[in-house]
Design goal:
Layout: E1 10-12, E2 15-17, E3 24-25, E4 28-29, H1 62-68, E5 74-76, E6 79-81, E7 96-98, E8 114-116, E9 130-136, E10 142-149, E11 160-165, E12 170-175
Antiparallel strand pairs: 1-2, 3-4, 5-6, 7-8, 9-10, 11-12
Length: 181
């Protein structure tokens, strides 16, 4: 009886890592992220329709917005708004403000600017040849920003993507997510 061979496919914590055209290191192949964040940005407010003619409800806390039933979840400057942030400074715990125009929001008609965890804010935070790059989750959602190397190789196959792997602590080639719907 023959035993199936995995070849270049390594299953690591449920994430399929595929060989990149760059070099490999302990824990799996590395790759250079396609996007980076050279400078912090200010996001434009998301254009989200507010029910009724009264405009966004007034608030003192985020809980006031949630209770209003307007679909606006964040209290900013006394008004309920759709976005969690407009700048990195709006994010708690050192997060990065990801603009709604910079990521795919799945099947949602509208998606907001959101705060995501970050190990870096701009490329300069990552040292020589380093880039501060987004890590994408299911269906293109943004999970965070991490340091990667601009000199690592690229993923060879069209069904692969370079994404941050928390299992190995770096950017690595993985099978591209299939998003239904």
């Amino acid at each position: 009886m023959k035993t199936p061979r995995l070849g270049a496919l390594v299953l690591l914590g449920g994430l399929a890592l595929i060989h990149c055209s760059g070099g490999t290191t302990a824990g799996g192949p590395t790759c250079a992220p396609a996007q980076d964040r050279a400078a912090a940005v200010t996001c434009a407010p998301t254009n989200y329709p507010v029910p009724g003619d009264a405009g966004p409800p007034s608030c003192a806390t985020d809980a006031d917005c949630t209770a209003s039933g307007s679909g606006l979840m964040t209290c900013r400057v006394g008004k309920c708004v759709y976005d969690e942030c407009l700048t990195d400074g709006d994010c708690a715990n050192g997060g990065v403000c990801a603009c709604s125009t910079d990521y795919y929001g799945g099947n949602a008609q509208y998606h907001p600017n959101v705060c995501v965890p970050a190990d870096c804010h701009v490329d300069a935070d990552c040292g020589t040849n380093g880039v501060c790059a987004p890590s994408l989750g299911y269906c293109g959602s943004l999970e965070g920003f991490h340091c990667g190397s601009s000199t690592a190789g690229s993923c060879g196959a069209t069904d692969q993507t370079c994404n941050f792997s928390s299992e190995v602590g770096r950017f690595a080639c993985s099978a591209a997510a299939v998003c239904n719907g």
